[in-house]
Write a structure and sequence with these properties.
The protein has 2 domains: about 120 residues, Rossmann fold, CATH 3.40.50; about 160 residues, Rossmann fold. It is built from 9 helices and 13 strands. It has a 7-stranded parallel β-sheet with strand order 1-3-2-4-5-6-12, with helices on both faces. Helix 1 packs parallel to helix 8 and helix 6 packs across helix 7. The radius of gyration is 20 Å and the shape is globular. The N and C termini lie far apart (about 50 Å).
Length: about 325
């Protein structure tokens, strides 16, 4: 069952728990963590209600609406909602919450560890490593436009999630192709035209593949790759819908993490604090590559994924000095 904006819900054959998802400002747009969270809760048999936010000012009120609807679990999305979750969780100590890809913080930005909040986090270095290996192999084998042995990266200004992605990406690429060079730029801009120009600059300096960890200006950076017949790699969600230039994406499987969390709740095993989801949980990975990527490269990346899953390979979460 999927209800929007807190409206009346219809009966469902499921006998699962009630889960209410208060979205971030992306609302009910497709290809978002909001959409994946709802899908994950439904896949675990939950009765799902979604209350869409449009601006940050909606967050606390919408979380309160979820609580008023007697939800067993309230799910909020992204670090943007961290303060609202913390405020609600402190007021409603018996209500259980899950915060996707974020950690609760107080009004001063101090991180909080709350007994009724599960922080759904991801080992971003794992999917970063996988798509890095894919990019490195394309450059090594001179596949299509990958001819200069140069990779471009655009990241939001340093933070744990961004740095982990990039650390994994660099390590994965270097593991298969040590001779690579890098063009790395950081920016918090949400201006797609500005981010496109950053991509153009990297391509002019020889970059063949652009990896974005940028948030809301990703489409501009990816457009730079498309216009130059270069390649792009997305992050978080499968971004193939943005452009034919996207050859794969590093994935955080929010649907899987939420499904696991709902199952734990149903089994009386709700876990508070930081819950780190990994390839072993099938909660990180990479999207199906485009036809640009040869099958032998895909097979090699799948072998690497198996090594990560087994624990034989542990991607780093720290960017090496001098890169």
């Amino acid at each position: 069952m999927l209800a929007t904006c807190g409206g009346p819900s219809t009966p469902s054959p499921s006998s699962g728990v009630r889960v209410c998802i208060a979205t971030d400002a992306d609302g009910l747009a497709p290809h978002t963590f909001n959409q994946l969270a709802a899908a994950g809760a439904r896949s675990a048999g939950a009765l799902v209600q979604v209350i869409a936010s449009h601006t940050a000012s909606d967050y606390l009120a919408n979380i309160q609406r979820c609580i008023a609807n007697h939800s067993a679990l309230v799910v909020a999305i992204s670090q943007d909602m961290a303060t609202a979750v913390a405020s609600a969780a402190k007021l409603h100590a018996t209500q259980r919450f899950a915060l996707v890809d974020g950690i609760p913080v107080d009004e001063g930005g101090q991180r909080l560890d709350l007994d009724n909040v599960s922080d759904l986090l991801f080992k971003a270095q794992e999917p970063g490593y996988l798509v890095g290996a894919l990019a490195g192999l394309l450059e090594k084998n001179k596949v299509g436009s990958a001819a200069h042995n140069v990779l471009g990266i655009l990241g939001s200004n340093h933070g744990p999630a961004v740095d982990s992605y990039i650390a994994g990406y660099i390590a994965g690429a270097k593991s298969v192709n040590p001779g690579l060079t890098w063009k790395i730029t950081y920016s918090d801009s949400q201006d797609t035209a500005f981010c496109k120009q950053l991509g153009i600059t990297q391509i002019s300096a020889g970059a063949d593949i652009l990896f974005e960890v940028t948030g809301r200006c990703a489409s501009g950076y990816i457009d730079a790759a498309y216009d130059a017949s270069a390649y792009a790699i997305g992050s978080d969600n499968d971004e193939a819908y943005l452009s034919p230039a996207v050859i794969t994406s590093a994935l955080k499987r929010v649907d899987r993490a939420v499904a696991i969390t709902v199952q734990r709740l149903q089994n009386g095993q709700f876990k508070s604090g930081q819950q780190l989801f990994t390839t072993q949980d099938d909660a990180t990975g990479f999207s199906s590559p485009s036809s640009v990527v040869p099958q032998d490269v895909i097979n090699q990346v799948l072998d690497i994924r198996a090594r990560i899953r087994s624990g034989a390979l542990t991607p780093p979460d720290t960017i090496p000095a001098g890169v």
